[in-house]
Specification:
heterodimer; A: alpha/beta; Rossmann fold; six-stranded mixed β-sheet; six-stranded parallel β-sheet; B: mainly alpha; ABC transporter involved in vitamin B12 uptake, BtuC; 76% helix; 0% strand
Amino acid sequence: MKKIPVLSTRNLCVGYGKKQVVKGIDLQFFPGEFVSLLGPNGAGKTTLLRTLSRHLPILDGSITLNGSNLSKIKSSDLAKIMSVVLTQKVAPPLFSVYEFVAMGRYPHTSWTGNLNREDDRVVLGALNLVRAQDLMFRDISTLSDGERQKVLIARALAQEPDIILLDEPTMHLDLKHRMEVMSILHDLCREKGICVVASLHDIEIAAKVSDRVALIKDDAIIAFGPPEDILRDDTVSKLYDFSNARFNRLLGNIEIRTAADKAKVFVIGGMGSASVLYRLLSKKGYEIATGVLLKNDIDYFVAKALGIQCLVQDDLDVISMESVQEAAKILKQCDFVIDAGFETAGLNRANLELLTGAIVLKKKIFCMNGCGQRKMFYDQNISGIRFSKTESQLVASMAASMEEREIA
Amino acid sequence: MTTTLIQTDDLADIREQTGKRRGIVYALFGIILFMIMAADVMIGSVNISLKGVFSILANHDTASVNGFIVWKIRLPRAIAAALGGGYLAVAGLLLQVFFRNPIVGPFILGISSGATLMVSFVMLTSLTLGFTVLNPFMATLAAFVGAYGTMLIVMAIASRVKSAVTLLIVGLMMGYLCHAVTSVLVAFAEQEKIKGFVLWQLGSFSGFRWSEIQIMIIGGGLICMLIYALAKPLNAFLLGEEYASSMGVNIKLFRFLILFSSCALAGMITSVAGPVAFVGLAVPHMVRLAFGTSDNKILVPGCLIVGAVVTGLCDFIARMVFSPVELPISAITAFFGAPIVISLLLRRKVILS
């Protein structure tokens, strides 16, 4: 049996006055579903939400809410089906959190607005669900941004809606509250069966919590579906016109690319030992080459997202000498060599040959102080290798040696 | 972490307790109002005892000298001051909520400026022909026309403008416009006429007739009842127009009713007493702090009663300090009211929006 959507749009056109912002919108939102609207600033996420909530008139097409035409629903009935969380800052004076959340009972109370036991029960339940019961007697103007956002969600919840529309619910929030708000919204869908539609900026979080996402770009919905299907490296780059960042579908995050204008560095890594170093070096503006990596290595995914020159061996087997020789050619052109402290027990033992090559070429080598085994490897050969305990120390000592060289 | 032990029973209890506490505050202000009105009727150039006042009122004695003073002069004045103050405070409260702006008063939309303009026509020019000698009824009529004329213009503009801030600015501009014309008239007016006009501008509750009071009670009472019925959407409006509409408030109707009621009340008082300053701006703040809430269901009756107390007291002071010279009421309201509001705000450290 096919589920019936709470809210659906048909060839909808939204905008302000005569200005059409997004056209031809066909979206369906189902009960218990978390839908994110993604897109760059000014793409029309807010305009779409405001049209769905009837704050803006429909320019063309139609919106159906619970089977009836949205334009024809009485506003008092609409308030029982749909509630909103807006971006504007609200902090009326002399309002306790409880009173504020209880305002959400508006469509359910009589003309006096007096609360009965049922109202109290719903308000308490809403406060519980957003984990804000301890804020209950605080004055709303004394809350932090994160606390206030939770209270705003509780207010929307107190309306007992079937669908909640949220405009940028994580804006201005710190990481803790951003996560908390998202997990609260997630709970609303799962536990209460409420449909949550939110415009979000954070594509990494959106990909992880949303059941479906809609990508809005250049006055149209360019894709709508499960994030696993539609959030691909190229679609995301297109969505935001990324020229210096890349979304990685497998890692579910965005890597930032920086213009390389410093020395060229060869990183010998593998098995996840070099991922942090890649980001740090890229951030500091080094040109990076790395290898030899196997195709299933996390270092490979990060390096690819960062646009690093990468020597990969396609077949998942012991790294071959051919691959190492290939890498050595590139290593030769690099100013520095970094030994990320990779494990030598497994398939990438051959990378040690690369290191030996670097020593022969009298390259300056910076080494992450990994296992003791590695120290022994170097002791047999030469001194003059710098060991660092952390990635940032390593990069700092490399920068220092670069300055020395320039002075010399 | 507080445990999650708060139950609906506790909430009902808390509500009952706050209700009781608010009842006590209402009662206190009620007693103070009674005392002020009693003093207003008893004390003056001729002092009458409380017992005397009661017997005059009970016997409907208008014949004796004291009876005349009570029935024709002091009682109408005391009632007019109380009603006027209450209505202005409610009108101010409405507009403060509507514009979500704490420094808005009942005259922000130009009601008093419109009234002043029309009064200046009557008082400062020779348009009045036969009525060159100041006739108080003419001033009242002119103010009435001016106040409600402005109200109609504001309402007409409000139906076309969407943003509340735009409307606020339109109101301010209307005020400046009227003011400009008035000042031209003042520049050309004869000296002795100007003093009368300036005094009218500062407001007075003297010389009220019972017929005027009747209109104030019935007309104002009906409007106040309407406003009380609007307390729930008014509360929703505290969260802003967008949240209010998302909760089911009919914004268009509500805007109309708010503007109509506040302008009607302000216009009514301006017609009969002149533009009494400050009460409509300050009393809503006093009431909010006294009751510790923004709930308009509490504030509307609170403003009525505290507005009456403040204005009654100020009128009494205006009449008594330099007796027999009577001070303009606006001078007293601002002189005593402003420090009170400042100290209340500082002590409670309340941030107003």
